[in-house]
């Protein structure tokens, strides 16, 4: 039999989902660059991750462990790019206590070395609630299609 949640528990669940959506959008904002003077915000990015976070993408050959390794990987991955713009869509977020998962469809526009790409991907994310709030514990990126010009 399904146990009903109290009003306070339901409100907390909704607040958690909104906090996670904001965290994910903030991550995208921090790694975007290339318009209106925008640059990747490497100073602010570490605060979004747990210390032992992972960031994986088989198609890119990336398997980074630890927040500092992730930041170094992102610095290298974005160094030659002129533009990076992330759009996370169709969020499916599940919260269970102090852990949560998110599944997203993701469009990323990138331009570098004279080539413009629009990449369609999916992203699986795990989150942990910490004393500082929700943080990203893992990102697993899956390429679906790349369109280029």
Which descriptors apply to this entry?
SnoaL-like, alpha+beta, NTF2-like_dom_sf, SnoaL-like domain-containing protein, 25% helix, Nuclear Transport Factor 2, Chain: A, 6-stranded mixed beta sheet, 149 residues
Secondary-structure map with pairings?
Layout (H helix, E strand, L loop, with lengths): L6 H25 L17 E9 L4 E4 L1 H12 L2 E16 L2 E14 L2 E16 L2 E16 L1
Parallel strand pairs: 1-6
Antiparallel strand pairs: 1-2, 3-4, 4-5, 5-6
Organism: Peribacillus muralis
Protein name: SnoaL-like domain-containing protein
Pfam families: SnoaL_4
CATH architecture: Roll
Biggest sheet character: 6 strands, mixed
Spatial order of strands in the largest sheet? 2-1-6-5-4-3
Please name the CATH topology: Nuclear Transport Factor 2, Chain: A
Query: How many domains in all?
Result: 1
Order of helices and strands: HEEHEEEE
- Please provide the count of β strands: 6
Q: Whole-number radius of gyration?
A: 16 Å
- The percentage helix is 10-25%
Beta content comes to over 45%
SSE-based structural type:
alpha+beta
Mean pLDDT: 94
What shape does the CA trace take? globular
Query: What's the assembly state of these chains?
Result: single chain
Poorly predicted ranges (pLDDT <50, ≥5 residues)?
A: none
Indicate the CATH class.
Answer: Alpha Beta
Number of helices: 2
Distance, first to last CA: 55 Å
Would you kindly provide a written description of the structure presented here, covering whatever features stand out?
This protein has 149 residues and is an alpha+beta fold. It has one domain: Nuclear Transport Factor 2, Chain: A, CATH 3.10.450. It contains 2 helices and 6 strands. The chain has a 6-stranded mixed β-sheet. A hairpin with a 2-residue loop joins strand 3 and strand 4. The longest helix has 25 residues.
């Amino acid at each position: 039999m399904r146990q009903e949640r109290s009003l306070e528990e339901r409100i907390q669940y909704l607040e958690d989902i909104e906090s996670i959506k904001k965290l994910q959008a903030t991550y995208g904002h921090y790694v975007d660059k290339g318009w209106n003077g925008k640059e990747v915000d490497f100073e602010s990015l570490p605060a979004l991750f747990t210390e032992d976070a992972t960031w994986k993408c088989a198609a890119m050959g990336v398997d980074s462990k630890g927040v500092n390794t992730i930041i170094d990987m992102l610095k290298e991955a974005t160094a030659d790019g002129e533009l990076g713009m992330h759009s996370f869509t169709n969020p499916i977020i599940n919260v269970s206590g102090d852990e949560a998962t998110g599944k997203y469809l993701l469009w990323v526009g990138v331009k570098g070395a004279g080539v413009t790409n629009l990449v369609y991907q999916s992203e699986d994310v795990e989150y942990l609630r910490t004393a500082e709030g929700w943080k990203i514990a893992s990102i697993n990126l899956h390429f679906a299609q790349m369109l280029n010009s």
